[in-house]
Design goal:
Blueprint lengths: L12 E3 L2 E5 L6 E5 L4 E6 L12 E7 L2 E6 L4 E6 L4 E6 L10 E6 L3 E6 L6 E5 L5 E4 L8 E2 L10 H7 L10 E3 L2 E5 L5 E6 L6 E4 L1 E2 L2 H17 L10 H10 L14 H10 L1
Parallel strand pairs: 4-18
Antiparallel strand pairs: 1-2, 2-3, 3-4, 5-6, 6-7, 7-8, 9-10, 9-13, 10-11, 11-12, 14-15, 15-16, 16-17
């Protein structure tokens, strides 16, 4: 299975029977009806690269808004449930050296972003004004660390029995007595009822599949033009189909007179 066939996340938030999350393996925003597995592709985060992994990790709900906090991405994204709009706040500037956000601390009126190395600044964002500033000292941080505020799945041995990869990189949520998570290497939702001694797996069926497929074609094009092409990243046959039918033949990639197969082979070789 290629990366672009996966629909999964590190963490999600549940609102009125729906799970909302930022995609793990590429730039995508999804909503899943927990009872049925029906999945809606809500769009993507336009300020980030479409093929970026791990854009967000921590997520929380406050005042009818879903906050998706950056991990390797540059922006905090806020989904307003009332009017179904998405806004973004720049946390790491484009010209800054790349760093990951290691920890998120949520205070009463602020969010604190702690980087993964000492040379990068700690950032603070006011939840009301969305103003971002640098902090000089870590002792000024007040609030709860989101990494320490998660539900702890009670049956880790089942994960080992199933041999689920990346089991230490995603989180479960307990909803009405049932535990839910999303399988990393696939497009399935995991479900566990306490005392059942088994995991259930429900396939995620995308209700607006054509919209998602059109977007995935855009990602394949970006991967190709950036020469980030590998079998585990994309399905080569799908890329070839895009070359024949989509915008890729009009982008100028092949206008130098080169052969499509030769160009593809060079990209696959790296």
């Amino acid at each position: 299975m290629s990366v672009l066939e996966r629909i999964s996340c590190h963490n999600f938030i549940e609102v009125e029977g729906y799970a909302y999350f930022s995609g793990w393996f590429y730039n995508g925003f999804f909503k899943v009806e927990i009872e049925t597995g029906k999945t809606t592709f809500l769009g993507w985060f336009e300020e980030e690269k479409v093929f970026q992994w791990n854009i967000h990790k921590e997520i929380f709900l406050r005042d009818d808004k879903i906050y998706m906090c950056p991990w390797r991405g540059r922006y905090l994204h806020i989904w307003n449930l009332a009017d179904q709009t998405l806004c973004s706040v720049e946390i790491r500037k484009k010209e800054e050296c790349s760093f990951s956000v290691n920890e998120i601390c949520l205070g009463e009126s602020s969010i604190f972003f702690l980087p993964d190395h000492e040379d990068s600044p700690i950032r603070k964002m006011d939840l009301e004004s969305l103003r971002v500033m640098d902090l000089e000292k870590e002792e000024n941080i007040q609030g709860k660390y989101l990494s320490e505020s998660k539900d702890v799945f009670p049956e880790s041995r089942l994960i080992e029995t199933w041999g689920i990869e990346y089991a230490d990189r995603f989180f479960w949520r307990k909803i009405s007595g049932i535990w839910y998570a999303f399988l990393p290497l696939g497009h399935h939702m995991l479900r566990y009822t306490e005392g059942a001694d088994k995991l259930e797996m429900k396939e995620l069926v995308v209700v607006n599949r054509e919209v998602l497929e059109e977007y995935l074609s855009k990602i394949r094009l970006e991967l190709f033009t950036e020469k980030v092409v590998a079998e585990d990243m994309i399905n080569i046959q799908e890329l070839l189909d895009d070359m024949k039918t989509k915008e890729i033949c009009r982008t100028g990639v092949f206008r130098s007179g080169g052969n499509i197969g030769e160009t593809l082979w060079k990209c696959v070789e790296g």
